[in-house]
């Protein structure tokens, strides 16, 4: 085949497939102990030895290491504190969603992060083609105009000076209405997409309500009143020292005896930050252990032997668990059956009901161990790397904190954040009314929430830009440098006059992708070409459907449900009220916040209420479809004793995943929501196949491309980004 077979659209599709897979693969590889050995800077590394995590290493080195504040961290922080925490988490051997039969919280978060960070990665490697012609008029009620505004803003940030113009205007005013049309349109686009992400994460994600409960429980333990009083202290050195004591001081006998030298490395107890972490996780452990005890009582003597084998599996080394998991996959048997066969249990026979109980028991024991391991690593480690790392971060950020203390009303900022979080928790908690009808917030409701609190952010930025030009300059320089990484630069193999240079795609990687493709056998090339054409069509439809959902949100009306309307009326929680721009040293006085309710209230409300049914349309964002695609590709153990693995997005797994740690059902998903049909890309006008079947077939096709080129693609990225 000739090189021209890979047209611009096919090259862009190939680049999209490979970056999508590689990003998630790199994130997933962090579960393997020793992953940082060849990560590269800022960790220990060998000169000219490429990173084994080139995409993530590129993000860290280009966007994090030079961030004001973080750029003051010593090398020791990365190579000792950060390295040790990551290494300890890897060695903790936290559980896999496959074994639990449900979508885990970490899987939910990891796939979401992967779906988001692949965008800046594609921009970094492929570059953004410069766009010279722009229309200055934008209708903030039109989806196409908002999308165009976002593209124009990014183009001007990379190739123009819009960042400086926006900072200068922000220093003059805290009113969004005073900004030019482009800024207002981009603000609306970002606000709606952020609301869409929040809605999908907390409402439509199977683990959304559980994650919300964790946030609520942790939020109730935060001493906002103490924090607000502390940041009001006039002397910045005293203020920083007081905040460190509030969050990190350990008050125990062991901490004193260690300090005076009577003991060494004795457990000093926990500071406030660690107490919040351990308390929230221990609440979960208590409920999980109660469920486990109940299951153990229900089983006969023979059943208890089986349960003991399942419990022993949770403490096996990672390589042993991987071996048993592989047997489950290759033999098409459930993980429970594979464990019992491997354990030489006297009886491996189970009825369907007993198998369901056994899978539930295994999931409970894995969840208990996960939480205990997290507490051990983060809160009870003999060398407290977490506390030390936070102290060193505070030291690194001292110049930033000093300037913020003078320029910004920090106490007011904390208050605004407290009330935003309180409103978010109230809005996102799916519940039922007195008649038993489900109260489900829409994307439009989350848009209203952000509108209600957006002025807090506007005033914060205005105060910073107006009152401290140097601090603003630090972050402006960083933002301009970050934007410069998306410039498309010509090189010897990628001429500026070529058609690919002016189109979206792989940028300077285009010739290398062509070479990789040409190196494949001709039959494999012929097999991949139609897959690329299909994926290109898929991307067009994905963006079109996202634009359609954006238009629907822009036209949507606020919910009339009294419980939701009450939040926006200001009677449920005090709305933020910020002064225009208090000068340095003149903080706005605030009233104290209402004491938080008892930490157990959330669980009690959930348990006592009928199970609400979630039926809601997702918002805009192509990243949501990519997130769903990652779940489609995530295998879950068969829920019966034998059969093919389930997808993490299958209705049975989704419904099972929406269970609280105490066994109560948090929500029940409607049929379309459980299948993910509302977010998947519709491949055709006829519905001969379900969206789930289409997704599985698409995954099989993409696997052909991944198997043929993914390994070489990662090597290519590693060679291109090795600067040490």
TrEMBL record:
Pfam families: DUF3818, PXB. Residues 163-347, 357-484 form the PX domain. Residues 4-121 form the PX-associated domain. The keyword Coiled coil applies. Residues 278-305 form a coiled coil. Residues 601-610 have a biased composition (Basic and acidic residues). Residues 491-510, 569-623, 636-661, 676-697 are annotated as: Disordered. Keywords: Coiled coil. One of its GO terms (molecular function) is phosphatidylinositol binding. It comes from the Eukaryota. Residues 569-587 have a biased composition (Low complexity). This is PX domain-containing protein. It comes from Vermiconidia calcicola.
